[in-house]
Design a protein that fits this description.
secreted, structural molecule activity, 410 residues, Flagellar hook-associated protein 3, 8 helices, 12 strands, 2 domains
């Protein structure tokens, strides 16, 4: 015969009610939080996987924020460069108008005034700031304006050549900035006369028609200038490069007033002043690989419109050359910006595809986590009803059993 003491009855009853109540509280917590696993002991295996999935979701969310930032920065730069192209296009239209030979001095001054306004607009565009107040074209010097006027009043670049990059996925980085020096300053300048010792001489018909010939002639390094010198009273010309160490004079040697070609460059030296004394010569320095900023091109054009008098043949030729050079340099500037816009388009495509991948990965990770973690409300509510019933039954049974006594049978 097994004897059960009153203490055992009470202990067993209380223990059972505590177990049922614990299950009930667990189910209530699941319903209130919406999670099946609220602590590791609920399901150790699932809890470990949920922890890893939480880390993965946070990683993806961080990269999504980076991708969104990159997208905003690149779109802002793209929009800014589009504005710059519009301004340069207007400057080009004004330059074409300035080339009209029937314009009066007042007409040229009016064009010059608008060019100054457009120059200021271009500077404002180049000094665009992002949402955090940093200048987007200053490289790493975000607190410094990209362009500012120097002591002479010319617009010069103030930043550095740094390029910021942002990681938008594991091992995937994308540049989110471009320095203004590469976009607005380092623009290939058209070939032009940089210096002249002649009083009445000038160069006309200057044209680069075969760039490859120029590169081959100056290989391995293209110099910054080409010197044309009148060597005698007959007007014979010599053409040298690399500081005079490279003789490019054609055979037979060209003369003043005669069109000629040398290393892919066509030109004519006109009306140079000759002197019977062979020690007196005229020379012209032709820039062949110079760089000129878009700002410098417009500034030079403004100075030309305000300073050149077309009353003489020489100044008229200089004026025409200025217009032609300005148009060529403006085209080079637009091409530089359009090339950068193409690069930005490629970066935006990369950001877009990475963003789509991150979104898909995030949805997949969240779905798996949901399957492991989220509660089945229908099942949980059913369990809660059943557990409430069991707890109530246990309480009633315990109440009945706890009142039993041998004295009731006496």
């Amino acid at each position: 015969m097994i004897r059960i003491s009153s203490q055992q009855i009470f202990s067993g009853g209380i223990s059972r009610m505590q177990e049922v109540n614990a299950d009930l509280v667990k189910t209530q917590q699941q319903l209130s939080t919406g999670k099946r696993v609220n602590k590791p002991s609920d399901d150790p295996v699932a809890a470990a996987r949920i922890l890893k999935l939480d880390q993965e979701v946070k990683r993806i969310e961080t990269y999504e924020r980076n991708a969104n930032l990159a997208d905003n920065r690149l779109k802002q730069e793209e929009s800014t460069l589009a504005s710059a192209v519009d301004i340069i296009q207007r400057v080009r239209e004004l330059t074409v108008q300035a080339g009209n030979g029937s314009l009066s001095a007042n007409d040229r001054m009016s064009i010059s005034s608008e060019l100054k306004e457009r120059l200021g607009q271009l500077a404002n565009v180049a000094n665009t700031r992002d949402a955090s107040g940093e200048y987007i074209f200053s490289g790493f010097q975000g607190s410094t304006p990209a362009f500012a006027k120097d002591a002479s009043g010319a617009w010069t670049y103030q930043g550095d050549e740094g390029q910021r990059v942002l990681e938008i996925d594991d091992g995937v980085t994308v540049p989110i900035s471009d320095h203004g020096k590469g976009i607005f300053v380092n623009i290939p300048a058209t070939i032009s006369v940089k210096e002249s010792d002649s009083v009445d001489g000038y160069v006309s018909g200057l044209e680069l028609f075969a760039p490859q010939d120029l590169e081959d002639a100056f290989s391995p390094a293209v110099p910054n200038d080409l010197t044309i010198t009148v060597v005698d009273a007959a007007g014979t010309l010599s053409i040298t490069a690399n500081g005079g160490t490279l003789d490019l004079t054609p055979t037979p040697a060209p003369t003043v007033g005669e069109p000629f070609e040398v290393s892919g460059i066509a030109l004519t030296v006109n009306d140079a002043v000759f002197n019977a004394d062979p020690t007196l010569t005229d020379s012209f320095t032709i820039g062949v690989s110079d760089k000129q900023s878009i700002f410098g091109t417009i500034e030079k054009l403004v100075a030309g419109l305000e300073g050149i008098d077309k009353a003489t043949l020489k100044t008229s030729a200089e004026y025409d050359a200025l217009i032609a050079e300005s148009l060529a340099n403006l085209d080079n500037g637009q091409e530089s910006i359009l090339l950068k816009q193409t690069q930005l388009g490629g970066r935006l495509n990369a950001v877009e595809s990475t963003t789509a991948f991150l979104e898909d990965s995030g949805l997949y990770s969240k779905e798996i986590r949901s399957q492991l973690q989220d509660v089945d409300y229908a099942e949980a509510i059913s369990n809660l009803s059943f557990q409430s019933f069991v707890l109530q039954a246990a309480q009633q049974s315990f109440a009945q059993i706890s009142r039993l006594s041998l004295f009731d049978r006496l």
